[in-house]
Design goal:
Elements: H1 2-22, H2 34-41, H3 45-57, E1 61-64, E2 68-71, H4 76-100, H5 103-118, H6 132-146, H7 152-164, H8 166-174, H9 183-195, H10 199-218
Antiparallel strand pairs: 1-2
Helix pairs in contact: 1-3, 4-7, 4-10, 5-6, 5-9, 8-10, 9-10
Length: about 240
């Protein structure tokens, strides 16, 4: 029983830490000190350590000499390389999804967009960060777009890149917030192109959507080179 309780406590702390990192409530590069974590999350050092070990394996936190665990810092170089890879691979996967996706796939995309549209983006008591529910719906919408691709190798690669970029994706909303950006319209335009089976338009929109999200974080990166030209995404 003790083992089950310990596992439950670790999973609970892990989920809370992960949500706070994704939501930008724990900032890039912030030190994660055990005494503070134990008080804030009402947990033990052992459960917090296990949760941080799991988050480190997923790339959400890293360790630094004399600092211990810290939230993964923003890296211009990593973000630029990852964005370029995602733009190229997701473009191919979406094009193949449009070619091979059936009516059921299309209905799934429409349904995922409907859920995203109806999910609250902000909470009144936390207006600076997207809700966890919106973040989950956003992930589900983009997963639905890719799922129509019948090339399992390319689909697996696209999913892996998207998973690797998840932290940057969430930070682009919570940290790199752009007050005049209309995410709902961007997602709606992508859906319209998909339903119309307009591959060229859909690919153009998804490339812009990915690159724009990355660009919002550039000025926040500690190794930002202070030069014009975006994130080096090949067009």
């Amino acid at each position: 029983m003790a083992r089950t309780d310990g596992t439950t406590r670790t999973d609970g702390v892990y989920q809370l830490l992960r949500a706070d990192i994704l939501g930008g409530r724990l900032e890039p590069g912030q030190r994660l000190k055990f005494p503070e974590l134990c008080v804030h999350y009402g947990t033990s050092v052992g459960a917090a350590r296990e949760a941080l070990t799991k988050l480190a394996a997923e790339g959400f936190v890293v360790t630094r000499p004399r600092q211990g665990y810290i939230v993964r810092p923003l890296s211009y170089e990593d973000l630029a390389d990852l964005t370029q890879a995602r733009v190229e691979v997701e473009s191919v996967v979406l094009r193949l999804a449009l070619q091979g996706g059936d009516m059921q796939w299309e209905a799934g995309v429409v349904a995922a967009r409907h859920v995203l549209q109806r999910t609250a983006f902000r909470k009144l008591d936390d207006p600076d960060h997207p809700t966890d529910e919106w973040s989950a719906a956003h992930t589900a919408f983009h997963e639905a777009l890719l799922s129509g691709c019948r090339n399992h190798h390319l689909l697996a690669t696209a999913r892996a890149l998207r998973q690797e970029a998840e932290l940057y994706l969430q930070w682009s909303v919570s940290i790199g917030d752009e007050s005049h950006r209309d995410l709902a319209s961007e997602h709606g335009a992508i859906l319209d192109a998909v339903v119309a089976r307009d591959a060229e338009r859909a690919v153009e929109l998804i490339r812009d959507h990915i690159a724009h999200s990355a660009q919002l974080l550039i000025s926040c990166a500690s190794d930002e080179p202070n030069r014009a030209g975006g994130v080096g995404v090949a067009e």
